[in-house]
């Protein structure tokens, strides 16, 4: 029986100018984020989703709740990264252990900070 992929979703803030490979660590990139007792960010959410396809656009659509048109604009605009690499092909097949970062936009108070949603894929 296919149980569907597990996607870990987190909204995070980080400096978009700092070379950082781990968005959720509180050291090394000049970031500060509230972390709970379990070591995960306080806004961490675990979602279990069923997806009929492993395409990047389908995963981002299902995980974020954004429309297909919004997801397409994000992907084609280079605002979606898979394992820290920009993917502009919406037909990319998501692999097990992929980390997908969706750049939402800069904060109005500080244009050097950006809001990012991260989805970690676990295929069952």
Automatic annotation (TrEMBL):
Source organism, top-level taxon: Eukaryota
UniProt GO cellular component terms: mitochondrion
SUPFAM superfamilies reported in the protein's UniProt record: Alpha-L RNA-binding motif
Keywords: RNA-binding
GO MF assignments: RNA binding
SMART domains found in the cross-reference section: S4 (SM00363)
Full protein name: S4 RNA-binding domain-containing protein
Source lineage: Eukaryota, Metazoa, Ecdysozoa, Nematoda, Chromadorea
One of the protein's GO biological processes: regulation of mitochondrial transcription
């Amino acid at each position: 029986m296919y149980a569907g992929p597990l996607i870990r979703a987190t909204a995070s803030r980080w400096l978009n100018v700092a070379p950082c490979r781990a968005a959720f660590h509180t050291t090394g990139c000049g970031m500060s984020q509230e972390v709970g007792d379990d070591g995960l960010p306080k806004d961490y959410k675990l979602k279990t989703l069923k997806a009929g396809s492993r395409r990047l656009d389908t995963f981002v659509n299902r995980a974020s709740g954004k429309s297909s048109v919004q997801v397409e604009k994000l992907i084609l605009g280079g605002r979606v990264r898979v394992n820290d690499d920009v993917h502009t092909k919406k037909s990319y097949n998501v692999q097990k252990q992929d980390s997908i970062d969706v750049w939402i936009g800069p904060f109005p108070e500080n244009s050097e900070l950006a809001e990012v949603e991260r989805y970690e894929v676990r295929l069952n």
